[in-house]
Amino acid sequence: MTDDSLLPFCFPAVQHKKIAAAFDGGRSSSDGGVMLLAQADRRLGIADRLARVIPDGRDQERVTHLLPDILRARIFAIACGYEDADDLDRLRTDPALKLACGRLPDTGRDLCSQPTVSRWENAPSLRDLIRLMGVMINLYCASYAGPPDAVTLDIDDTVDVVHGHQQLSLFNAHYDERCFLPIHVYDTATSRPVAVLLRPGKTPSGIEIRGHLRRLVRRIRQHWPATRITIRGDGHYSRPEVMQWCEENGIDFVFGLPGNAVLGRAVDETADDIRTRRALDQKTCLRGFTRDQLSGEILEDRPARLRQNRGYHQGPRHPLRCH
User: Which of 34, 130, 166, 303 is the most buried (most CB within 10 A)?
Assistant: First the structure.
C-alpha cells in the first residue's frame, strides 16, 4: 500500500523556528554567488571596458544582445564553473544569471545563446586581443591609490588542456597534453592579476616574450612613469632577447637559468660540504656561496631563494650566476 505524504510537510522546529518542506517556491538557481560577481563588475565596469575596445560592426538597429551583455554573461558563466559556450543554451534562462546581467528573472529577455557567444569568441583580431590586455593592465594600475615606488611582477605560463582540435591548441610534450599555454602576469606583493594572454600550446620564444613585456611595461609606464619594475620568471623566460631588452629599458629582472656541467663542477666542492653539513645537522635548508676564481662571479649552491637584484639569475635546482 502506498503511503504518500502531501507537501508541504513540517520538520521539528529548531530554536522555535518553523521548518517546512515544499516545492512551490517558484524558479530557483544554484548559482546565487553570481550576484557577488555582478557587484564587482558594476564597481569596476569590466564588461563595459572590454566591450569598448572590440569593434562591433553589427547593424545596431537589429541587435538583440549588446556586446557588454554578451561578455558579461560569458564571464559570469565561466566564473561559476561553466567553461563551455554550450552551457549558455541552458543558463540563458537561469534566474540568478539573468538578474546578475540586469534582466528580470521571469519577465526579462533571455540571455544570449551559444551561437552568439561562439561568433564573438572568434571575432577579435590580434590587435583587439592586445587592446583587451591593455584594459586589464589599466584596471590593475587603477587598483593602487597612487603609483608605488616599486613592483615585482611574476610572469609564467600555465597549461590549459583542451578536448579537441581548437584553434591555437597544440600538443605539448612536457605536459603530454594537447593544450593552450596562456601567459599570466601577477603582482607578487598583492597577488593581483596584471595581464593574461591566450596563446598556442608551445613554449614562447624570446622574441615573443620581449614583445609581450614591451607592451606590458609601456602600458604600466603610462600610469607609473617613475615606478621601479622587476620581472621574475622561470628558465624559459631567460632569453637573450628578453634580458637585453630589460637592461636597455631599465627593468630589473630575476630569471631562472638551466644548469650545466661547467657550473656544476665550479660549485662541486662547496656543494659537497653543504650537503654533508645539512645531513649531519638535519637541517631543512642550508645555503652557501663560493666565488669563481677565474671570472670572479659569485656562485650560489642550491637550494636558494629568489633575490630581487638586477641581473641576478636563478636556475631551479642548479647553481646561480650573478654579475
Answer: 34
